[in-house]
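re: ur question from earlier - yeah i can do the single chain one, its not a big deal. heres the input i used so u can compare w yours
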Amino acid sequence: MEQFDEVREIGMGPMVGKVALSIDATRDGSMVEPGAQVVLQRGDLMLTYTVAGPEALASIVEHPEAIAHADGHRRTGVNVASFTLIALRGEGVRGRAMQTPHPRLRALLRAVGDAPYEADAGGDVRFFLPDQNGQERWLRLDEIPLAPTVPAAWPRP
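and the output i got, formated as tokens:
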């Protein structure tokens, strides 16, 4: 959301929240029906997002601007996911998070545990954890070694 100057000026950071879900998953497996709207209040601004259907995917991911900025968007996504994971490992939240039907989330919560985290000079959130060789170092969320049985992150092969 902070791609818009008016939202960035508010300085409230990314927003993660609940969305009212449809009773039945749609045919394409998404939980929110295409055309549904999500409304968020940011300072004095009211932002309205409309959920696009699967037919919009190609026009979004194949757009030249999306391709040109793909690495930055991925990096931002990894950082947002890292802060979300930090919030989910908090007291009173972790137990509920470990009950979700998302094996990758549970594996990451176990891997991160109470490890310290910080933002490096480039702004990437990193956790102090053992790498693939057992050497402790600062790792981004997408560098944390997980068991081969843990589902891959998106995009899945």
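Residues 1-68 form one domain. not sure if urs matches, ping me
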